[in-house]
Model the fold of this input.
Amino acid sequence: MENKTPRWLTLVMVALFSTAVASCATMEGAGEDIESAGEAIQDEAEENN
Done:
């Protein structure tokens, strides 16, 4: 059976998938950083009240 998907479309799909996977990891790291910054602010506020 002959493959009907153009080669460029396959390459674009692989690139988009790779970007999506990398973005998820980056967003997870950013979320953790924001969470830890929020906790630090909250701890400081509790100490000063």
